[in-house]
Design goal:
Pseudouridine synthase, tRNA processing, Dual-specificity RNA pseudouridine synthase RluA, two-stranded antiparallel sheet, RluA_PseudoU_synthase, EC 5.4.99.29, single chain, alpha+beta, 10-stranded mixed sheet
């Protein structure tokens, strides 16, 4: 086999997104869709042709006008919003920009978190030597805050509810690693027993609150699957 072919194969991404359910619609009205994204499915297509399958492309097969408002990491499951018209998109996307939406996640982390609740306030930046991973960077990082509280303890794990006050890439994953409690199954940040303790990333976007374009309050919940 020639070197060019070997290089091409080595760069071919491994991606096996779940197919059942193909799309899980939690709510639909004239303005937006609320979706339950499974772990393992990209929110939007990747650059490589093999990464075209995503929540966005699947939804757009049925709703060509649908546009993504918020995203989740491929390995995170839970609530995602897509708009069905420009007005709704502008109104709701602005709430995410202004941080007036409320989001909470459930995570299972390695080890027993000693305090019952807390706030992590650590700036984050991409790790230039280890993309797409991110890291705490006090010199060049963007501000990032996460509130958390303990839900229950396992044998050597802790179930937490996480409240991201900002929306940085990999924020919850890096913040939990920074305090010594990586999320189980995290292929980027966990190692050893914490990596192999779960067959997926144990992080789920369970609750989301925002306001309709007319000002009415909306709240959606998709129970944690783990």
């Amino acid at each position: 086999m020639g070197s060019d072919m070997s290089d091409a194969l080595s760069e071919f991404p491994v991606y096996h997104p779940p197919l059942d359910p193909y799309v899980s619609i939690v709510h639909r009205d004239e303005d937006f869709l609320v979706l339950d994204k499974p772990s393992g499915l990209l929110s939007v297509p990747g650059r490589h042709p093999a990464l075209r399958d995503s929540l966005a492309t699947r939804v757009q097969e049925q709703f060509p006008q649908a546009q993504m408002i918020n995203r989740l990491d491929k390995d995170t499951s839970g609530l995602v919003l897509m708009s069905l018209n420009r007005k709704a998109h502008a109104k709701i996307a602005a709430q995410f920009e202004a941080r007036t939406t409320e989001k909470s996640y459930v995570a299972v982390v390695w080890g027993k978190v000693s305090d019952g609740e807390g706030l992590i306030d650590l700036p984050l930046a991409i790790d230039p030597d280890n993309k797409p991973r991110h890291r705490v960077d006090h010199g060049h990082g963007k501000p990032a805050q996460t509130r958390w509280h303990v839900l229950e303890y396992g044998e050597n794990t802790t179930r937490l509810r996480l409240f991201p006050l900002t929306g940085r890439t990999h924020q919850l994953r890096v913040h939990m690693k920074a305090i010594g409690h990586v999320i189980l199954g995290d292929e980027f940040y966990a190692e050893g027993p914490a990596l192999h303790a779960a067959d997926r990333l144990l992080l789920h976007a369970e609750e989301l609150s925002f306001r309709y374009p007319d000002g009415r309050a909306a709240k959606f919940i998709v129970p944690c699957p783990f």
